[in-house]
Amino acid sequence: MRLYTKTGDKGQTSVIGGRVDKDDVRVEAYGTVDEANSFVGKARTELNLSNEKLKQLDQELERIQHELFDCGGDLANKKSNRKLKLEEKSILWLEERMDAYIKETPELKRFILPGGSEAAATIHIARTVTRRAERLVVTLKKIEEAPEVCLRYLNRLSDYFFAVSRYINYVNGHSDVEYIRSEEVFRGKTKKKDKR
């Protein structure tokens, strides 16, 4: 099988339902979802899988990689009668997992700097790329149809990545580094116990 087709040599690509320019906002949106997926894959290679908690997280992140493929495929479909692969239950699952990680990690009051362990820093990159994908889907929805479930999923996923990056650092013994000029922006929003 050849990986190259030469059909995109003039700056166009195929989506489900036609051909578009490679800088079309739809292509930008699902391409950015793919970028986020790649950073999730990188983070998984950086997890210490001898730790049972991080081994379980690795399985979660694999599930998310599949869901990001679903999301990208749904965004690449221009057909109005499209059947979506990404489902509402994926959003609910993210919320459940996020709540669990928030309970595990120390109380958060201020903005924190991205960083800590290598895997956590990579998850922070995945978080910011996911936010960019979300913004692109918002733009897409202003000019064409785009799946609402993808927008909600990406919104929730970036929050999940924030919780997960803190959890990875917590398990690895890295404390959050607070932004030194931050106010207490999370007062009363994240009531948790330090159970390590």
UniProtKB/TrEMBL annotation:
Keywords: ATP-binding, Cobalamin biosynthesis, Coiled coil, Nucleotide-binding, Transferase. It catalyses: 2 cob(II)alamin + reduced [electron-transfer flavoprotein] + 2 ATP = 2 adenosylcob(III)alamin + 2 triphosphate + oxidized [electron-transfer flavoprotein] + 3 H(+); 2 cob(II)yrinate a,c diamide + reduced [electron-transfer flavoprotein] + 2 ATP = 2 adenosylcob(III)yrinate a,c-diamide + 2 triphosphate + oxidized [electron-transfer flavoprotein] + 3 H(+). Pfam families: Cob_adeno_trans. It comes from the Bacteria. InterPro entries: CblAdoTrfase-like, CblAdoTrfase-like_sf, PduO-typ. Residues 3-168 form the Cobalamin adenosyltransferase-like domain. Residues 40-67 form a coiled coil. Belongs to the Cob(I)alamin adenosyltransferase family. This is Corrinoid adenosyltransferase. It comes from Halobacillus litoralis.
